[in-house]
UniProtKB/TrEMBL annotation:
InterPro entries: LolA/LolB/LppX, OM_lipoprot_carrier_LolA-like
N-terminal signal peptide: 1-19
Organism, as annotated: Flavobacterium glycines
Keyword list, A-Z: Lipoprotein, Signal
The keyword Glycosyltransferase appears for this protein: no
Tree of life domain: Bacteria
Protein name as catalogued: Membrane protein
Length: 213
């Protein structure tokens, strides 16, 4: 009888976990569908890096414009442009432009164009806490990397229940480093210039152009 109760208890936990996983998958699918429905997305964000053991506390702000797999990222004093074929990293401090080819189809490559849909492969997921943030209901989903070599222990993805937009992402490393990306502004279908994702060399006449490949 005792063994029967134990088996029943294990089965109930298993069913409950599967139900939670289905809820998490459904919410992630809704986020992906919402992202793909927009012609373009413009995001202002805050990025924080903390490691209490190393006494590291850093905060930075940035913004990114996304359209398909093309993007323009402004972060930590640098601008990165991906035109669909090549990446142009503009470093004003060094007056340098680094040009390289990037395989955007590489599942292991973490790029701005994947920042809103990265969770679709390589993770186990489950529902986590629901929080009220300034009147917004934020549902967290816990993501665990399936690759044992991944240096990240877990990721908490906060999703606005009403809009299905990502509110924040909290990443905890195996060595105690925690990074948090919080979306301050999420705009969609903005008027963009024809050259939004084009690198124009004559804008940087005195820069050293470094072709990496």
């Amino acid at each position: 009888m005792k063994k029967f109760i134990q088996i029943t208890f294990i089965l109930l936990i298993s069913f409950a976990t599967q139900a939670q996983d289905k809820k998490a998958k459904s919410l992630l699918d809704q986020v992906t569908a919402k992202v793909k429905s927009y012609n373009n997305i413009v995001i202002d964000f805050k990025y924080s890096l903390n490691n209490s053991k190393e006494n590291i506390n850093q905060d930075s702000k940035g913004n990114v414009t996304l359209k398909g797999n093309q993007y323009v990222l402004n972060f930590m004093g640098m601008t990165k442009i991906f035109d669909g074929k090549k990446t142009y990293t503009i470093v004003p401090e060094d007056e340098e432009v680094n040009i390289s080819s990037v395989n955007e189809k590489d599942d292991n490559a973490v790029t701005p164009s994947k920042m809103l849909t990265f969770f679709n492969s390589g993770y186990k997921y489950s529902m986590d806490i629901l929080q009220n943030v300034r009147g917004r209901k934020i549902q967290y989903i816990k993501l665990i990397p399936t690759n044992t070599k991944d240096q990240r222990k877990e990721i908490l993805l906060g999703i606005d229940v009403q809009t299905k937009h990502i509110y924040n992402l909290i990443e905890t490393g195996k060595k105690g480093t925690k990074t948090t990306l919080t979306v301050n502004s999420f705009k969609t279908n903005q008027p963009l210039s024809k050259n939004q994702f084009t690198f124009v060399a004559n804008k940087y006449p005195n820069y050293y152009i470094n072709k990496l490949d």
